[in-house]
Automatic annotation (TrEMBL):
Cellular compartments annotated: Cell membrane
Source organism of this protein record: Stappia indica
The protein's name in its UniProt record: Diguanylate cyclase (GGDEF) domain-containing protein
Lineage: Bacteria, Pseudomonadati, Pseudomonadota, Alphaproteobacteria, Hyphomicrobiales
Domain of life: Bacteria
Span of the entire protein shown here: 612 to 880 of 880
EAL domain sequence ranges: 23-269
Amino acid sequence: AKSSADPGYRIFDEDIRKALFARRRIETGLAAAVETKDLEIWFQPIVDLSASQICTYEALARWRQPDGSFIAPDQFIPVAEETGLIEQIGLLALERGLEAMRDWPEGTRLSLNTSPRQFGKGVLVPAVAAALERHGTPAARIELEITENLLINSGPEVFEDLDALAALGVGLVLDDFGMGYSSLNRLHRYRFNGLKIDRAFIQRMEEDETSAAIVSAIAGLARCIGMHCTAEGVETQAQLDLVHKAGCGRAQGYLLGRPGPHASAQPTA
Ligand code: C2E
Ligand code: CA
Ligand code: CA
Ligand code: CA
């Protein structure tokens, strides 16, 4: 509690000290977790709505704590981005994902999140090619999810990587579509195989007609330019009906299956 003898800036200093401490703990702990098996890769299904079956699993990082709880990516991905550890996490997800795929039904694909930091360094493309080769996995069975910020202020080396991945046959998907600035401009700058509409739009569809119209428009646009379209964060049957009606070919969300340490055999709804 604050007393008259305890000026406000002390409290402020204390907050900063705590924040810095927590951050440093994440930094050192995360580096160790990547080395040990405490950084796990979980999988969440993506359902093809016309076939009513799982077409893809997205790999999502989870950090296991000594007490068995997990720290969510929101807490550590930003730190990993800053320190560069995200590059190793990306390679870990690729490796664990390709291992896990051996048990999946034929044709099921693996979708991997990427960080802008992985691109343009001459590492990503050879690593992907070598991992596919080593596991005997066709390139068409994996796709990389790319966020729009990769395409902002990026040099030709980034586009060279995208071209090289496309030439390998790896799918390229624009993630969190609609959240960045001038999303449509991104579609113009690079030819993607698909896009994922951010959860924020899906969650507003039920009560907000404008959001529903935006989702329909994005799905229609995707269809016109030959991209597949995934609705993220579908939590209710009403949302599932709406995204289907809006023309999204694929959906992902807690209604259809939560992320888990193993690929689930069936959609849970
Ligand atoms: P994202 O790529 O947009 O992934 C989808 C996030 O939404 C995941 O959060 C997933 O668990 C969550 N989600 C899925 N369905 C639902 C739903 O129905 N409702 C709600 N409320 N949430 C849902 P998660 O696993 O916490 O990951 C957060 C973000 O961290 C991801 O967002 C992705 O950007 C990043 N991330 C996770 N793993 C990796 C990784 O291995 N590499 C990189 N570069 N980024 C990663
Ligand atoms: Ca994603
Ligand atoms: Ca997303
Ligand atoms: Ca998101």
